[in-house]
Specification:
By secondary structure, the protein is mainly α. It has helices at residues 2-23, 30-35, 37-59, 62-65, 71-84, 90-108, 115-137.
């Protein structure tokens, strides 16, 4: 299960590198795609991700481990806020909370869910629900996005 969780982080990092690589193409067309180092690094991370998934799924239950991959969406949302200064609005918070809750519910299907993984999911669920609560308690105002600032 830890290996699949690591795959989610690696997959999110790959997506960030691909976004960076596509944003800064040095040449137009196919030459730019082939010569962009961040883009190529993102593809390499996806390759490593695939190999790690093969080993992780070999020894575990597919119906329990595969839904954990959905956490990649959570990491991408967080990393997008940090690196690309994207906003985190109410609907994104709800979507992320649903993904985390879904992974937690699917994880409960396994009778021997390990304590650190459960604690990590609980932390993220509490964090996102707290952020959701701040959206309703604070008046809306324009502010610049800072790292991990989830104010509305």
């Amino acid at each position: 299960m830890v290996l699949v969780f690591a795959c989610t982080v690696l997959g999110a990092a790959a997506q960030m590198l691909m976004k960076i690589g596509l944003s800064h193409l040095g040449h137009p067309g196919i030459v730019g795609y082939v010569t962009s180092l961040p883009l190529l690094a993102g593809y390499c991370l996806y390759g490593m991700n695939t190999v790690m998934m093969i080993f992780a799924l070999r020894d575990g239950e597919l119906s329990i481990l595969y839904p954990i991959i959905a956490l990649t969406y959570v990491w991408v949302a967080i990393l997008s806020m940090v690196f690309f200064h994207e906003s985190l609005n109410f609907f994104k918070l709800v979507g992320i909370s649903v993904v985390i809750a879904g992974v937690a519910v699917m994880g409960r299907g396994r009778q021997t869910l390990r304590q650190p993984f459960r604690a990590c999911l609980l932390f993220w669920l509490v964090w996102f629900l707290g952020s959701l609560g701040r959206c309703f308690l604070r008046p809306a105002r324009r502010r610049s996005m800072r790292a991990f600032d989830t104010s509305c």
